[in-house]
Write a structure and sequence with these properties.
CATH class: Alpha Beta
Distance between the termini: 25 Å
Order of helices and strands: HEEEEHEEEHEEEEEEHEHEEHH
Mean pLDDT: 91
Oligomer: single chain
Largest sheet: 9 strands, mixed
Structural class: alpha+beta
């Protein structure tokens, strides 16, 4: 068990051969976007849960539809406005002749998902085409930064009582090996619910009590008092990408994306609410040149997603007027 724990808490999605990651972090207010580049093409699937998703090109990923591969996936802040960042990724890929051959052109396929961070700072500033392009320019195969960067810059968690009593979310990544196969995840954590360490049961980031001294327990508060949600409609959503170098079909990628949501359920409570549009993509680069046991991959997927979520909030820091990060709460001696 100690060796498994170490493997889960380390690594990044770029450990998967064929995957690059890049952030754009907006300097004028807490927001940004994160791109995962697979320029040569990767098979992909998606699983969308919760009642408030914001997505692009997810229908294309249905196994019954014809296009087999994507060339990048964009995660962005800015709510529905942030979907514009994907246009910058398309432009970047087109300039380099990456994309699906269609007659005389190559058409880059770039699915995307967004989270709501407009409550933090000037909502008129949000990721756009230029931001998506800049994220591509920054993309490398090196481990990406975690915490208050990219799509996780303006993320918050524990929003039962609104943004004033929420804590900082962020973006995190993790990876592990399953035999000869690598599997990794990157997750931008922006949930209505609390983030809980499943090893201890402690809330490490969540809705704060009226004094701001400690998380009060969102689910327990809901069950005990029926406290109504104080945030704006659709003001949450956790989004992420799971990647592997195994050779998978679109149907297998979709199954893997569904399994990955179990990782969110292990460490975010409540999850998949009517205010969240939780979305996870799964991509297969095929670089390992072999398939993988789907039972093993299905068991690994939730573990790397959980690790990525915990890494995200542990690395998060307050940006400007945003709420406390988990590390800052702990430094003040106020953690649960």
């Amino acid at each position: 068990m100690p060796s498994e724990r170490a493997a889960l808490l380390g690594g990044s999605i770029t450990d998967v051969p064929g995957v690059k990651a890049g952030h754009f972090t907006e300097a004028r207010r807490p927001t940004g976007c994160t791109v995962i580049l697979v320029e040569q093409g990767a098979t992909a699937g998606v699983a969308v849960r919760g009642a408030a998703p914001g997505t692009r090109e997810t229908d294309l990923l249905d196994p019954s539809n014809t296009v087999e591969q994507v060339h990048a996936i964009m995660l962005s802040g800015g709510s529905a406005f942030g979907l514009n960042a994907a246009a910058g990724v398309v432009r970047w890929l087109e300039e380099r002749s990456y994309g699906l051959p269609v007659g005389p052109v190559r058409v880059p396929i770039v699915p995307a998902a967004i989270l709501f961070d407009l409550s933090v700072g000037d909502h008129r500033i949000r990721p756009d085409e230029a931001a998506g392009y800049a994220a591509c320019e920054a993309a490398t195969a090196s481990p990406p930064a975690q915490g208050s960067v990219g799509a996780g810059t303006g993320a918050t968690v524990g929003k039962l009582f609104g943004i004033e009593r929420a804590m900082k979310g962020g973006i995190g990544t993790a990876a592990m090996r399953v035999g000869c196969i690598t599997i990794g995840a990157i997750v931008a954590v922006n949930a209505v619910g609390d983030v809980i360490d499943p090893a201890s049961g402690d809330i490490i980031a969540g809705a704060l009590d009226p004094t701001g001294a400690r998380p009060c327990g969102t689910t327990a508060t809901l069950l005990q008092s029926g406290t109504p949600y104080s945030g704006a409609a659709g003001s949450a959503t956790t989004i992420g990408i799971l990647a592997t170098d195994a050779v998978l079909t679109k149907a297998q990628c979709r199954l893997l994306a569904h399994s990955a949501h179990d990782g969110l359920a292990r460490c975010i409570d409540p999850i998949h609410t009517i205010q969240d549009g939780d979305t996870i993509f799964a991509i297969s680069t095929g670089e390992a040149a072999q398939g993988a046991d789907m039972m093993a991959l299905g068991a690994a997927a939730p573990r790397v997603v959980t690790a990525a979520v915990l890494n995200a909030v542990r690395a998060a820091r307050a940006v400007g007027p945003s709420p406390l990060g988990a590390a800052e709460l702990e430094m003040h001696g106020r953690a649960c």
